[in-house]
Amino acid sequence: MRITVFGCGYVGLVTGACLAELGNNVIVVDVDKKRVADLKKLKMPFYEFGMKEIIEKNLKAKRISFTLDAKNAIKEAEVIFIAVNTPEDKEGRANLTYVFNVAKSIGEFMNSYKVVVDKSTVPVGTAEKVQEIILSNQKQKNAFDVVSNPEFLREGTAVQDFMNPDRIIIGADSSKARDIMVSLYKGIERTGRPIIVTDVKTAEIIKYASNAMLSTRISFMNQMALFCDKVGADIKMVAKGIGLDNRIGPRFLQAGLGYGGSCFVKDVRALIQTMKEHGCEADLFEAVDRINVRQIHYFRDRIVEQLGSLKGKTIAFWGLAFKPKTSDMRNAPSIKLAEELQALGAKIRGYDPEAMEEAKKVMRFEPCKDAYDAAKGAHAIVLVTEWSEFRELDFDRIRKLAKEHILFDGRNIYHPAEIRAKGFKYVGLGRQ
Ligand code: NAD
After folding, report:
1. Model pTM?
2. Residue ranges per domain, the chain?
3. DSSP summary character for residue 344
Protein backbone atom coordinates (compact mmCIF):
# COMPACT_ATOMS: atom_id res chain seq x y z
CA MET A 1 0.00 0.00 0.00
CA ARG A 2 1.09 3.61 -0.47
CA ILE A 3 1.25 5.23 2.96
CA THR A 4 2.04 8.74 4.12
CA VAL A 5 2.81 9.44 7.77
CA PHE A 6 2.74 12.98 9.16
CA GLY A 7 5.28 13.41 11.98
CA CYS A 8 8.86 12.13 12.34
CA GLY A 9 8.55 11.75 16.11
CA TYR A 10 8.57 8.59 18.19
CA VAL A 11 5.21 7.43 16.87
CA GLY A 12 5.47 8.67 13.28
CA LEU A 13 8.98 7.34 12.67
CA VAL A 14 8.30 3.95 14.19
CA THR A 15 4.96 3.66 12.36
CA GLY A 16 6.58 4.64 9.05
CA ALA A 17 9.58 2.36 9.50
CA CYS A 18 7.51 -0.65 10.58
CA LEU A 19 4.92 -0.24 7.82
CA ALA A 20 7.80 -0.07 5.30
CA GLU A 21 9.26 -3.20 6.88
CA LEU A 22 5.89 -4.88 6.28
CA GLY A 23 6.31 -4.17 2.55
CA ASN A 24 4.47 -0.88 2.09
CA ASN A 25 5.80 2.21 0.32
CA VAL A 26 6.00 4.92 2.94
CA ILE A 27 6.60 8.67 2.84
CA VAL A 28 7.20 10.32 6.21
CA VAL A 29 6.56 14.07 6.32
CA ASP A 30 7.70 16.61 8.89
CA VAL A 31 7.84 20.40 9.13
CA ASP A 32 11.20 20.26 10.92
CA LYS A 33 13.81 20.86 8.18
CA LYS A 34 16.76 19.65 10.23
CA ARG A 35 14.97 16.48 11.28
CA VAL A 36 14.12 15.59 7.68
CA ALA A 37 17.63 16.42 6.41
CA ASP A 38 19.18 14.34 9.20
CA LEU A 39 16.90 11.37 8.57
CA LYS A 40 17.81 11.35 4.89
CA LYS A 41 21.41 10.92 6.09
CA LEU A 42 20.33 8.23 8.57
CA LYS A 43 20.93 10.49 11.57
CA MET A 44 18.28 9.64 14.18
CA PRO A 45 16.58 12.51 16.05
CA PHE A 46 16.46 10.45 19.29
CA TYR A 47 17.58 7.14 20.66
CA GLU A 48 15.19 4.25 20.09
CA PHE A 49 16.42 0.66 20.13
CA GLY A 50 16.38 -1.00 16.67
CA MET A 51 14.94 1.99 14.81
CA LYS A 52 18.06 3.05 12.93
CA GLU A 53 18.63 -0.46 11.55
CA ILE A 54 15.08 -0.83 10.27
CA ILE A 55 15.15 2.64 8.65
CA GLU A 56 18.53 1.94 7.04
CA LYS A 57 17.26 -1.33 5.58
CA ASN A 58 14.11 0.26 4.16
CA LEU A 59 15.91 3.34 2.82
CA LYS A 60 18.16 0.98 0.84
CA ALA A 61 15.12 -0.94 -0.40
CA LYS A 62 13.54 2.44 -1.37
CA ARG A 63 10.43 1.63 0.64
CA ILE A 64 10.73 4.67 2.92
CA SER A 65 11.55 8.32 2.25
CA PHE A 66 11.50 11.55 4.25
CA THR A 67 10.20 14.87 2.99
CA LEU A 68 8.98 18.36 3.80
CA ASP A 69 6.65 18.25 0.79
CA ALA A 70 3.19 17.63 2.27
CA LYS A 71 1.42 18.26 -1.03
CA ASN A 72 3.07 15.47 -2.97
CA ALA A 73 2.99 13.11 0.02
CA ILE A 74 -0.79 13.55 0.28
CA LYS A 75 -1.36 13.05 -3.44
CA GLU A 76 0.71 9.85 -3.48
CA ALA A 77 -1.01 8.18 -0.51
CA GLU A 78 -3.87 5.74 -0.19
CA VAL A 79 -3.69 5.89 3.61
CA ILE A 80 -2.52 8.98 5.53
CA PHE A 81 -1.49 8.68 9.17
CA ILE A 82 -1.56 11.75 11.40
CA ALA A 83 1.12 11.10 14.05
CA VAL A 84 2.00 14.64 15.10
CA ASN A 85 2.37 15.92 18.64
CA THR A 86 -0.68 16.76 20.81
CA PRO A 87 0.95 18.56 23.76
CA GLU A 88 -0.75 19.81 26.90
CA ASP A 89 -2.08 23.37 26.69
CA LYS A 90 -2.25 25.82 29.63
CA GLU A 91 -5.57 24.42 30.86
CA GLY A 92 -4.44 20.80 30.60
CA ARG A 93 -6.30 20.14 27.33
CA ALA A 94 -4.75 18.40 24.32
CA ASN A 95 -3.51 21.07 21.93
CA LEU A 96 -4.85 19.91 18.57
CA THR A 97 -3.35 22.68 16.43
CA TYR A 98 -0.81 20.35 14.79
CA VAL A 99 -3.42 17.70 14.03
CA PHE A 100 -5.76 20.29 12.53
CA ASN A 101 -2.94 21.82 10.43
CA VAL A 102 -2.38 18.41 8.84
CA ALA A 103 -6.13 17.97 8.29
CA LYS A 104 -6.21 21.33 6.49
CA SER A 105 -3.36 20.29 4.16
CA ILE A 106 -5.07 16.97 3.45
CA GLY A 107 -8.24 18.82 2.44
CA GLU A 108 -6.32 21.20 0.19
CA PHE A 109 -4.21 18.64 -1.62
CA MET A 110 -6.19 15.41 -1.77
CA ASN A 111 -6.82 14.17 -5.28
CA SER A 112 -8.60 10.82 -4.73
CA TYR A 113 -10.22 8.69 -1.99
CA LYS A 114 -8.02 8.55 1.14
CA VAL A 115 -8.24 6.88 4.50
CA VAL A 116 -7.12 9.46 7.07
CA VAL A 117 -5.89 7.84 10.28
CA ASP A 118 -5.72 9.60 13.64
CA LYS A 119 -2.69 7.92 15.23
CA SER A 120 -1.94 10.82 17.56
CA THR A 121 -3.62 10.59 20.97
CA VAL A 122 -6.66 12.84 20.62
CA PRO A 123 -9.79 13.42 22.71
CA VAL A 124 -13.05 11.77 21.77
CA GLY A 125 -14.76 13.72 18.98
CA THR A 126 -11.50 14.76 17.26
CA ALA A 127 -12.05 12.51 14.22
CA GLU A 128 -15.31 14.37 13.58
CA LYS A 129 -13.48 17.70 13.72
CA VAL A 130 -10.74 16.39 11.41
CA GLN A 131 -13.45 15.35 8.98
CA GLU A 132 -15.05 18.82 9.07
CA ILE A 133 -11.69 20.54 8.51
CA ILE A 134 -10.85 18.32 5.55
CA LEU A 135 -14.29 18.90 4.03
CA SER A 136 -14.17 22.65 4.45
CA ASN A 137 -10.70 22.87 2.87
CA GLN A 138 -11.28 20.60 -0.11
CA LYS A 139 -10.52 22.31 -3.41
CA GLN A 140 -11.96 19.40 -5.38
CA LYS A 141 -14.56 17.03 -3.96
CA ASN A 142 -13.14 13.62 -3.12
CA ALA A 143 -14.52 10.96 -0.81
CA PHE A 144 -12.50 10.09 2.29
CA ASP A 145 -12.90 8.44 5.70
CA VAL A 146 -11.36 9.36 9.02
CA VAL A 147 -10.51 6.45 11.30
CA SER A 148 -8.97 6.23 14.75
CA ASN A 149 -6.01 3.89 15.23
CA PRO A 150 -4.42 4.83 18.55
CA GLU A 151 -0.85 3.80 19.29
CA PHE A 152 0.25 1.94 22.41
CA LEU A 153 4.00 1.63 21.79
CA ARG A 154 6.37 2.29 24.67
CA GLU A 155 9.52 4.32 24.13
CA GLY A 156 12.52 2.04 24.54
CA THR A 157 10.73 -0.95 23.01
CA ALA A 158 8.78 0.96 20.37
CA VAL A 159 9.74 -1.11 17.31
CA GLN A 160 9.09 -4.38 19.11
CA ASP A 161 5.77 -3.03 20.45
CA PHE A 162 4.61 -1.90 17.01
CA MET A 163 5.43 -5.24 15.42
CA ASN A 164 4.11 -7.36 18.33
CA PRO A 165 1.31 -5.32 19.88
CA ASP A 166 -0.99 -6.74 22.55
CA ARG A 167 -3.81 -5.56 20.29
CA ILE A 168 -4.50 -3.27 17.36
CA ILE A 169 -7.46 -0.93 17.79
CA ILE A 170 -9.24 0.28 14.69
CA GLY A 171 -12.14 2.66 15.11
CA ALA A 172 -13.95 3.03 11.80
CA ASP A 173 -17.48 4.07 10.95
CA SER A 174 -17.21 3.02 7.27
CA SER A 175 -16.75 -0.57 6.08
CA LYS A 176 -14.48 0.52 3.21
CA ALA A 177 -12.01 2.22 5.57
CA ARG A 178 -12.24 -0.63 8.07
CA ASP A 179 -11.36 -3.22 5.40
CA ILE A 180 -8.37 -1.16 4.19
CA MET A 181 -7.08 -0.79 7.76
CA VAL A 182 -7.54 -4.47 8.59
CA SER A 183 -5.72 -5.45 5.41
CA LEU A 184 -2.87 -3.02 6.24
CA TYR A 185 -2.32 -4.80 9.56
CA LYS A 186 -2.86 -8.35 8.31
CA GLY A 187 0.90 -9.08 8.43
CA ILE A 188 0.85 -8.40 12.16
CA GLU A 189 -2.51 -10.11 12.73
CA ARG A 190 -1.12 -13.28 11.14
CA THR A 191 1.37 -13.56 13.99
CA GLY A 192 -1.53 -13.92 16.42
CA ARG A 193 -2.01 -10.28 17.40
CA PRO A 194 -5.73 -9.42 17.70
CA ILE A 195 -7.37 -6.59 15.81
CA ILE A 196 -10.28 -5.02 17.66
CA VAL A 197 -12.64 -3.07 15.41
CA THR A 198 -14.89 -0.47 17.05
CA ASP A 199 -16.68 2.72 16.15
CA VAL A 200 -14.46 5.81 16.01
CA LYS A 201 -15.42 7.33 19.38
CA THR A 202 -14.87 4.09 21.27
CA ALA A 203 -11.39 3.75 19.79
CA GLU A 204 -10.56 7.33 20.80
CA ILE A 205 -11.63 6.57 24.37
CA ILE A 206 -9.73 3.24 24.55
CA LYS A 207 -6.42 5.09 24.27
CA TYR A 208 -7.19 7.48 27.14
CA ALA A 209 -8.73 4.73 29.25
CA SER A 210 -5.60 2.65 28.80
CA ASN A 211 -3.21 5.43 29.86
CA ALA A 212 -5.51 6.50 32.71
CA MET A 213 -5.62 2.91 34.02
CA LEU A 214 -1.83 2.56 33.97
CA SER A 215 -1.37 5.96 35.64
CA THR A 216 -3.96 5.04 38.26
CA ARG A 217 -2.03 1.88 39.16
CA ILE A 218 1.14 3.94 39.63
CA SER A 219 -0.55 6.57 41.81
CA PHE A 220 -2.33 3.82 43.74
CA MET A 221 1.00 2.20 44.63
CA ASN A 222 2.58 5.56 45.44
CA GLN A 223 -0.19 6.35 47.88
CA MET A 224 0.23 2.90 49.44
CA ALA A 225 4.00 3.47 49.67
CA LEU A 226 3.46 6.60 51.76
CA PHE A 227 1.25 4.57 54.08
CA CYS A 228 3.95 1.86 54.30
CA ASP A 229 6.50 4.53 55.25
CA LYS A 230 4.28 5.72 58.08
CA VAL A 231 3.64 2.29 59.57
CA GLY A 232 6.94 0.60 58.72
CA ALA A 233 5.71 -1.87 56.10
CA ASP A 234 7.35 -2.88 52.81
CA ILE A 235 5.65 -1.74 49.58
CA LYS A 236 7.65 -4.24 47.48
CA MET A 237 6.11 -7.12 49.39
CA VAL A 238 2.69 -5.46 49.22
CA ALA A 239 3.09 -5.31 45.41
CA LYS A 240 4.10 -8.96 45.32
CA GLY A 241 1.27 -9.94 47.62
CA ILE A 242 -1.42 -8.25 45.54
CA GLY A 243 0.22 -8.86 42.14
CA LEU A 244 -0.05 -12.63 42.48
CA ASP A 245 -3.80 -12.24 42.51
CA ASN A 246 -4.81 -13.07 38.93
CA ARG A 247 -7.44 -10.36 38.99
CA ILE A 248 -4.74 -7.75 39.66
CA GLY A 249 -1.56 -9.05 37.99
CA PRO A 250 2.04 -8.05 38.79
CA ARG A 251 2.73 -5.25 36.29
CA PHE A 252 2.64 -1.49 36.89
CA LEU A 253 2.73 -1.93 40.65
CA GLN A 254 6.05 -0.15 41.30
CA ALA A 255 6.08 2.71 43.74
CA GLY A 256 8.60 5.41 42.94
CA LEU A 257 9.05 9.00 41.89
CA GLY A 258 5.86 8.87 39.86
CA TYR A 259 5.14 8.77 36.17
CA GLY A 260 6.54 11.23 33.64
CA GLY A 261 7.11 11.16 29.92
CA SER A 262 5.29 12.46 26.92
CA CYS A 263 2.01 10.62 27.49
CA PHE A 264 0.68 9.78 30.95
CA VAL A 265 0.87 13.27 32.45
CA LYS A 266 -0.75 15.05 29.52
CA ASP A 267 -3.22 12.28 28.71
CA VAL A 268 -4.61 12.05 32.25
CA ARG A 269 -5.04 15.83 32.29
CA ALA A 270 -6.60 15.91 28.80
CA LEU A 271 -9.02 13.17 29.85
CA ILE A 272 -10.03 15.19 32.92
CA GLN A 273 -10.69 18.25 30.77
CA THR A 274 -12.61 16.32 28.10
CA MET A 275 -14.77 14.61 30.73
CA LYS A 276 -15.56 17.96 32.32
CA GLU A 277 -16.45 19.46 28.96
CA HIS A 278 -18.99 16.66 28.62
CA GLY A 279 -20.39 17.31 32.11
CA CYS A 280 -18.77 14.22 33.72
CA GLU A 281 -17.00 14.06 37.08
CA ALA A 282 -13.31 13.19 36.75
CA ASP A 283 -12.46 13.05 40.45
CA LEU A 284 -10.62 9.72 40.30
CA PHE A 285 -8.24 11.01 37.63
CA GLU A 286 -7.80 14.36 39.40
CA ALA A 287 -6.56 12.40 42.41
CA VAL A 288 -4.25 10.32 40.21
CA ASP A 289 -2.65 13.49 38.84
CA ARG A 290 -2.45 15.15 42.27
CA ILE A 291 -0.76 12.12 43.85
CA ASN A 292 1.74 12.03 41.00
CA VAL A 293 2.70 15.69 41.48
CA ARG A 294 2.86 15.24 45.27
CA GLN A 295 5.26 12.30 45.00
CA ILE A 296 8.16 14.60 44.04
CA HIS A 297 7.42 16.89 46.99
CA TYR A 298 7.28 13.92 49.32
CA PHE A 299 10.66 12.66 48.08
CA ARG A 300 12.16 16.14 48.36
CA ASP A 301 10.99 16.30 51.99
CA ARG A 302 12.56 12.93 52.73
CA ILE A 303 15.87 14.21 51.34
CA VAL A 304 15.65 17.35 53.50
CA GLU A 305 14.68 15.24 56.52
CA GLN A 306 17.95 13.29 56.14
CA LEU A 307 20.35 16.03 55.00
CA GLY A 308 19.01 19.04 56.90
CA SER A 309 19.77 22.30 55.12
CA LEU A 310 20.63 21.76 51.46
CA LYS A 311 22.67 24.98 51.18
CA GLY A 312 26.04 24.09 49.68
CA LYS A 313 25.18 20.38 49.46
CA THR A 314 25.90 18.37 46.32
CA ILE A 315 23.39 15.75 45.22
CA ALA A 316 24.14 13.19 42.52
CA PHE A 317 21.37 12.04 40.18
CA TRP A 318 21.72 8.60 38.60
CA GLY A 319 19.46 8.70 35.55
CA LEU A 320 17.68 11.73 34.07
CA ALA A 321 15.42 10.40 31.28
CA PHE A 322 11.78 9.88 32.23
CA LYS A 323 12.37 6.13 32.08
CA PRO A 324 15.14 3.73 31.04
CA LYS A 325 16.02 2.91 27.41
CA THR A 326 15.05 6.34 26.08
CA SER A 327 16.63 9.76 25.71
CA ASP A 328 13.22 11.41 26.16
CA MET A 329 13.19 14.09 28.86
CA ARG A 330 9.57 15.21 28.44
CA ASN A 331 8.01 15.58 31.91
CA ALA A 332 10.93 13.64 33.41
CA PRO A 333 10.67 13.55 37.25
CA SER A 334 14.39 14.48 37.34
CA ILE A 335 13.57 18.00 36.09
CA LYS A 336 11.07 18.82 38.82
CA LEU A 337 13.09 17.14 41.58
CA ALA A 338 16.23 19.04 40.55
CA GLU A 339 14.33 22.34 40.57
CA GLU A 340 12.91 21.62 44.03
CA LEU A 341 16.32 20.73 45.48
CA GLN A 342 18.09 23.63 43.76
CA ALA A 343 15.50 26.04 45.18
CA LEU A 344 16.69 24.89 48.62
CA GLY A 345 20.33 25.54 47.76
CA ALA A 346 21.53 22.14 46.50
CA LYS A 347 23.88 21.62 43.57
CA ILE A 348 22.99 18.76 41.21
CA ARG A 349 25.48 16.53 39.42
CA GLY A 350 23.86 14.19 36.94
CA TYR A 351 24.47 11.31 34.61
CA ASP A 352 22.23 9.42 32.19
CA PRO A 353 23.36 6.75 29.70
CA GLU A 354 21.39 8.24 26.77
CA ALA A 355 19.69 11.50 27.74
CA MET A 356 22.63 13.81 28.52
CA GLU A 357 22.18 16.05 25.48
CA GLU A 358 18.41 16.31 25.89
CA ALA A 359 18.77 16.90 29.65
CA LYS A 360 21.20 19.80 29.10
CA LYS A 361 18.47 21.56 27.11
CA VAL A 362 15.80 21.33 29.82
CA MET A 363 17.48 21.32 33.23
CA ARG A 364 20.34 22.85 35.18
CA PHE A 365 22.97 20.37 36.41
CA GLU A 366 26.64 19.53 36.25
CA PRO A 367 27.01 16.82 33.57
CA CYS A 368 29.03 13.75 34.58
CA LYS A 369 30.50 10.96 32.51
CA ASP A 370 29.16 8.03 34.49
CA ALA A 371 27.58 7.01 37.81
CA TYR A 372 30.97 7.08 39.59
CA ASP A 373 31.82 10.51 38.29
CA ALA A 374 28.41 11.78 39.48
CA ALA A 375 29.04 10.39 42.97
CA LYS A 376 32.30 12.40 43.39
CA GLY A 377 32.02 14.70 46.39
CA ALA A 378 28.26 14.08 46.74
CA HIS A 379 26.48 14.49 50.07
CA ALA A 380 23.76 12.17 48.76
CA ILE A 381 22.96 10.06 45.71
CA VAL A 382 19.49 9.81 44.19
CA LEU A 383 18.60 6.95 41.85
CA VAL A 384 16.12 8.72 39.58
CA THR A 385 15.86 6.44 36.51
CA GLU A 386 16.27 2.69 36.81
CA TRP A 387 18.71 2.03 33.95
CA SER A 388 20.15 -1.53 34.15
CA GLU A 389 23.71 -0.24 34.47
CA PHE A 390 22.85 1.25 37.90
CA ARG A 391 21.86 -2.16 39.26
CA GLU A 392 25.37 -3.61 39.40
CA LEU A 393 27.61 -0.80 40.59
CA ASP A 394 30.77 -1.09 42.71
CA PHE A 395 29.53 0.47 45.96
CA ASP A 396 32.96 0.14 47.62
CA ARG A 397 34.30 2.46 44.94
CA ILE A 398 31.31 4.79 45.30
CA ARG A 399 31.81 4.99 49.07
CA LYS A 400 35.34 6.29 48.48
CA LEU A 401 34.17 8.87 45.94
CA ALA A 402 31.13 10.26 47.78
CA LYS A 403 31.50 12.77 50.60
CA GLU A 404 28.62 11.34 52.63
CA HIS A 405 27.01 7.95 52.33
CA ILE A 406 23.31 8.11 51.80
CA LEU A 407 21.38 6.64 48.88
CA PHE A 408 17.85 7.73 48.00
CA ASP A 409 16.34 5.02 45.83
CA GLY A 410 13.65 6.79 43.81
CA ARG A 411 12.66 3.57 42.03
CA ASN A 412 13.07 1.01 44.82
CA ILE A 413 15.53 -1.07 42.75
CA TYR A 414 18.10 -1.86 45.46
CA HIS A 415 17.91 -4.24 48.34
CA PRO A 416 18.07 -2.04 51.47
CA ALA A 417 20.11 -4.58 53.47
CA GLU A 418 22.74 -4.90 50.70
CA ILE A 419 23.16 -1.14 50.43
CA ARG A 420 23.41 -0.80 54.21
CA ALA A 421 26.02 -3.58 54.25
CA LYS A 422 28.11 -1.41 51.90
CA GLY A 423 28.14 1.37 54.47
CA PHE A 424 25.34 3.52 53.06
CA LYS A 425 22.18 4.76 54.64
CA TYR A 426 19.28 3.62 52.43
CA VAL A 427 16.07 5.58 51.85
CA GLY A 428 13.50 4.18 49.42
CA LEU A 429 9.76 4.71 49.11
CA GLY A 430 7.70 2.57 51.43
CA ARG A 431 10.67 0.35 52.33
CA GLN A 432 10.71 0.46 56.14
P1 NAD B 1 6.94 13.95 18.84
O2 NAD B 1 6.85 15.28 19.47
O3 NAD B 1 8.09 13.05 19.14
O4 NAD B 1 6.86 14.10 17.26
C5 NAD B 1 5.90 14.85 16.60
C6 NAD B 1 6.47 15.26 15.25
O7 NAD B 1 5.42 15.84 14.47
C8 NAD B 1 7.58 16.29 15.34
O9 NAD B 1 8.71 15.85 14.62
C10 NAD B 1 6.95 17.54 14.69
O11 NAD B 1 7.89 18.37 14.03
C12 NAD B 1 5.99 16.89 13.72
N13 NAD B 1 4.95 17.79 13.21
C14 NAD B 1 4.24 18.75 13.85
N15 NAD B 1 3.38 19.36 13.01
C16 NAD B 1 3.54 18.75 11.79
C17 NAD B 1 2.95 18.94 10.52
N18 NAD B 1 2.00 19.85 10.29
N19 NAD B 1 3.37 18.15 9.51
C20 NAD B 1 4.31 17.23 9.68
N21 NAD B 1 4.92 17.01 10.87
C22 NAD B 1 4.54 17.76 11.91
O23 NAD B 1 5.56 13.21 19.22
P24 NAD B 1 5.35 11.65 19.55
O25 NAD B 1 5.92 11.31 20.87
O26 NAD B 1 5.72 10.87 18.33
O27 NAD B 1 3.77 11.63 19.72
C28 NAD B 1 2.90 11.82 18.63
C29 NAD B 1 1.50 11.48 19.10
O30 NAD B 1 1.42 10.10 19.48
C31 NAD B 1 1.04 12.27 20.34
O32 NAD B 1 -0.33 12.49 20.23
C33 NAD B 1 1.33 11.30 21.47
O34 NAD B 1 0.49 11.54 22.59
C35 NAD B 1 1.01 9.97 20.84
N36 NAD B 1 1.71 8.82 21.42
C37 NAD B 1 3.01 8.92 21.81
C38 NAD B 1 3.66 7.82 22.33
C39 NAD B 1 5.10 7.92 22.80
O40 NAD B 1 5.54 7.01 23.50
N41 NAD B 1 5.84 8.95 22.44
C42 NAD B 1 3.00 6.60 22.43
C43 NAD B 1 1.68 6.51 22.00
C44 NAD B 1 1.04 7.63 21.48
Report:
1. 0.95
2. 2-198, 235-427
3. T
